[in-house]
Structures are given as structure tokens and as C-alpha cells.
Design brief:
Length: 448
Amino acid sequence: MLTVAEAQSRVHDLVAQAKRAGADAADSLYVCAESTAVSVRLGALEDVERSEGETIGLRLFVGRRSASVSSSDLSADALATLVDRAVAMAREAPEDHYAGLAPEDRLLTGAAPSVDGDDGVHVSPEALRARALAAEDASRAVAGVTNSEGASASAGRTIVGLATSHGFTGGYSTSGHGCSASVIAGEGGSMQRDYAHRSARYLADLEAAEAIGRRAGERAVARLDPAKLASGAMPILFDPRVGASLLGHFASAITGSAIARRTSFLLDALETQVFADGVSIVDDPLRLRGLGSKPFDGEGLPTARRELIADGVLTGWLLDSASARQLGLQPTGNAQRGVGGPPGVGITNFYMEAGPLSPAELMKDVKRGLYVVEMMGQGVNGVTGDYSRGASGFLIEDGEIGPAVAEITIAGNLKDMFRALVPASDLTFDRATNVPTIRIDGMTVAGA
């Protein structure tokens, strides 16, 4: 694994080599990731995985023609061959009037801001095993848990380097630590499973393994003996771990590529009311120790906090340089990429700001509703916004969470759902995409 400085030097040199070989412009991305993961089941070691790999990618332009290539062999001969192949490919490629490097005047200059993403901690396999065992022991200790699907603990580090031929060179490193447990409650045909998982950049910020395991066990036991639920329209509350998927659908709908292709249900929604008054949705790539934080995007542009929904109003799109050119706009610093192709668009630390009411207050007036903790299937139409997914969770009766329910379908349209959405006050930053508990009235529920 190279250091950050060595990674920057490597991509800078490869870009210079591409220019000497005849490219008019080029950029290069280096990524190296190492990780160790230990899995246990029923108190015994089940698996130890160790991986480390580095890859370098090159994208170059000959006029308006471009090509992208990558290699895991970083030797001088391999990189020379890589450059020659990329130049030859670009000369035969079709012209693309929207492709190209990011605007030079928008590149990050000066020192990159720190996102405090690497704790520098190296965790031994023995320590990972102890963490996994602690999580599983805690989950199996919950009354009603009858079996385990296992627990795991992981640790890793990633080094990133990026350089462009028009003046940008940068790099950064991130660490990652995780722990999870999955268990089964009940016997025979009435068994139920559930899980719990946490990730953090800093080991010191990772939730205790015992708490993670205990939560997995309690979730599984709570889902035993599901009741039948009659079909109808009713309020639905989404647990934060599933409510975050609604932000994923929103993000997909505001990407520049979807807008340029006219394949988004929010195509004509810019600067209009998309969510209810008071709702705010933010992308914050500079959040310290955030799971999605980074000081610059996949094209070398500076990243910055953006409020994409302000008081319910959509304020802008997520744009890389190519989609920005198609729309006649400027890129927004949201480019993401792998080593083997051109940039796309993505989010970083994406979240919905909390509302004023607690989850209990939010459901207090619900006579009959549904609290969803798991969703299945992919029944979402990004063009129309039609939404239909399998779900399971708990019945809400007279403002209180009641028995478990399963094998149901929830349906609506994302446009209507967004306008009816009300966030609770329980926002926490446990994932890259975070929401508080969410209430949406008027959705259709089809019972078993």
C-alpha cells in the first residue's frame, strides 16, 4: 500500500506520461484498499478474510474522443503499455461533445480540507475475533433467540490519489471499522430473523459490540408471532434504517444524468415545493469522521455542504462535469468514479434534518397504522415515481406499537409521499445516509 504522497506522485506521473504519448488531456485515479474481517458462528471461528489490492486508472482525451483503462500492475512496463493502449483506443472512439475534464477554474486549489477520516489504528485479527464473539454472545443471550447466523467484525483502510493534466493533484486516506450480528428467534415455522450493524471511521466511535448484538436479538424476538393486517390506506412510520432508502430514491431523481435523459419523476421540480414546509435535506461531504466524507470529488473539484431541499423546496441538481455541460450548468462537486471509467454522480453524507416531534409524539394520534422495519423488492419506477415494496414491521394501534406484521405490501407515489412526509426528532449519524423516523400518511397497505 502506497502512502498518500506516493499515490499522488504515481497518478501525477501517469498523467504526464499520457500527455507525452499524445493525449490532449488526461486524469488518473489510484485506489488501494486493505481490509480484514473475522466471522464467528455459535461461538466458533468461521472465517478470516484478508484482502489488499491496488488499482490505477487512466482516462485520456484525444480531441473529443476518450478512453478509460485500468491496471492492477503498477510496474513501469505495464503502465507504459496502459498509456499506449488508451491512446490507441481514444483515437478510434466516437466523439462526445459533453465529455472532458472538469473546468479548470473550478478545481480545488491550495491545501485540501481535513475530514478527519483516518484514525491510524491497526486492529489485529485476534481483536476482531473478540469483538465478533462479544456481539454474538450478547445476541444469543436475549431470551427467545434460538439460533445464530453469525457475527462479524472488520477493519480496513483506503488510500486515494487523483491527478488531472490541467493542474490538480490530491489524495487522502480513510479508515473503517464495523461490527454486525444476525440471529434467529423462535422455532419451526414461526422463526424470525433480524440483524444489527454499525460502521465508523474511528474505532473509538464504533458502538460497543455487546450493544449491537443485543439489539439484533431484541429485534428478532420482537418479530415473533406476526399478526394479520387488513388492507387499506393508513399512516406509515418508517424506522430510520429503512427510511434512508427514500433519500436514495430522491438522490437518484436529481442526478444530472437522469435530468439530461429526461427520465426522472422530478424532471420539472427545480425550485418548486417537493417536500412539506420545514423539511431540509443536506449533503455534507466535509462532515468530520463521516462515512461518506471526502475533501474533493472524483474530478478534483472542492466539495461543500449543500442544502438540496430547503424548507421543502428543491434547490439544485447533483452534477458532474459531463451532465452539467448537457444542461448548460456548472458541476456541483458531486462527481464519483471508479478506476475503470468516467465519473458519475453520487452523494456523500446525505441526511434529512430532524423535526420537532419525538417518534412517540409523531405516532400519538395514529388510530391504526404501520411501523416498517424491513422492506423487500425493488418496485420503484424512477420515471413516474410509482412505489410498491414488500414490507414487515409492527401494527400501530391508538398511538402505540403493537404486534408484529409480515408479508405485506406498501404502495404510493414518491411525489405524494415526499409532500406528506414528516420527520421525527431522533436523527443520528450511524450511516452515510441518515434519516430520523419518518411518518407518511395516506399510503396503501395490502395485507396478507
